Amino acid sequence: MERIITAEEAKAKDREVIASGVSSISLMRKAAEGIAEVVKSKIGKEIAVTAICGTGNNGGDGIAAALFLYREGFDTRIVLCGDAQRCTRDAAFYLRAAEEEGVPIDPQWEPKEHELLVDALFGVGLNRPVEGEAKDLISRINASGKRILSADLPSGLHADSGAVMGEAVHADYTVTMQAKKAGMLLGQGRAYCGEVFVGQLYKDDSTIRMFLQDETDVETLLPKRPFDSHKGKNGHALLCVGSLTYPGAALLSAKAALRGGAGLLTVCMPDPVRPFFCALPEAITVPTGTEDWDKAAAETVKQVMIGKQAIGIGCGVGKGDITSVIEAALRSGTKLVLDADALNQMAKHRELLSLLHENVVLTPHAGEMARLLETTVESILSDPIGAVRAFPCTTLLKGATTLIHSKGQIAFSTFGNPGLAKGGSGDVLTGLITSMLAQGLDPFDAARAGAYLLGTSADRAMKMLGERALLANDVIDMVQY
């Protein structure tokens, strides 16, 4: 697992380290050395290096990196954007050293023919849109066609949300300090950061609260089954899904739950949906005795819930009334996944939110999360970390980078590809997570494993079919672990 931090955490830790006796000048030196090492490994001395620097500490990192490269014989110059008198103390220290050693310092950037640009305009503290001359300069940098290396974070990118603040540098490489920032993985961050390198400034033994999960992290959650395993040992899952309008959602979630490894699967659905399950003979089907979801259907479900290790509710329910089903499942204390129409109905019947508990997994996309929190999609995307922390249960916020929160921990999952941006992907995820819960994983681990299996299966399927041709059913067929 790889540590992820917010801008405030980065600044607070720097203050703590400096208060312990480490000089801020030495931290800037280490950051600059990290930038210089990546420059040397990526381009060599045949290309000129231009460090375009602001007057803050991020600019100081760029100034110091240019100085160190100049000392090693690189064709290096500094473009200082702003009044030198406004430089921070540490940036001013390295600016004076650069002047004394003869590093060329220009007030404006005029491109050279063969040139690498080091972007050190703004750091993680940027909290307002880039405007005026700075915006124009970033536009020119992006349009130049030159290779760009950003110091700590591409200038103009929000460190926590990954939002582009008016204009942002589109980097080929980013050398970030100490740990990746959340915004490098969220929003537009992954598209703007390019290849990312992490430079270590100091040892950090503090508790990891946010992390980027990798294959090893998740594979440990999915051990091989014992030789004497049988279906009764591998969990009995229940799905309450489907409607005549969306029978496919029911089939997709059910097939995914079985492919995910549940020993037994019962699917409860309105009567008109049952004939579609001839395509999935492995599932146990229980019709509700009704044409659609209503209170009478809920009474059937309450009986079927008994003895199940996990329940998934919501895929393809449509306009049917499942509020009684949701309430019964919540009150049962059984491990539970709520998705799609279950989330939308909870947003309308807000008293259900008070029943959420630690055995529940919510799997909203940004629109569903906005309805649950009675806000806008823009608000969710501007603070996705805050959004997933809103509920007392495991919350999985779907996106190009998926966030999974439980009890103060947040896992970032970057598995998958744009081929998942089609109907049915969420149904597959619900089936997988429900299956993981039935097999004994706790909600946080089940959500992490489900996101991993969905993403890696989509990546395998994409290699065969391509992004545009990929279907949710193809993803299920590629599930393996």
For CATH, the homologous superfamily of the largest domain is named as Ribokinase
Strand percentage, roughly?
A: 15-25%
> Order of strands side by side in the largest beta sheet?
8-1-10-19-18-17-16-15-14-11-12-13
Rounded to the nearest angstrom, the radius of gyration is 26 Å
Structural class: alpha/beta
Helical content stands at 25-40%
How are the secondary structure elements laid out?
Blueprint: E1 2-5, H1 7-19, H2 24-42, E2 48-53, H3 57-71, E3 76-80, H4 89-100, E4 105-106, E5 115-120, H5 132-143, E6 147-151, E7 173-177, E8 180-181, H6 189-193, E9 195-199, E10 210-212, H7 215-219, E11 236-240, H8 247-259, E12 264-269, E13 284-287, H9 295-304, E14 310-313, H10 323-332, E15 335-338, H11 341-348, E16 360-362, H12 366-372, H13 377-382, H14 384-388, E17 394-397, E18 402-406, E19 409-413, H15 425-438, H16 443-465, H17 472-477
Parallel strand pairs: 1-8, 2-3, 2-5, 3-4, 5-6, 6-7, 7-9, 10-19, 11-12, 11-14, 12-13, 14-15, 15-16, 16-17
Antiparallel strand pairs: 1-10, 17-18, 18-19
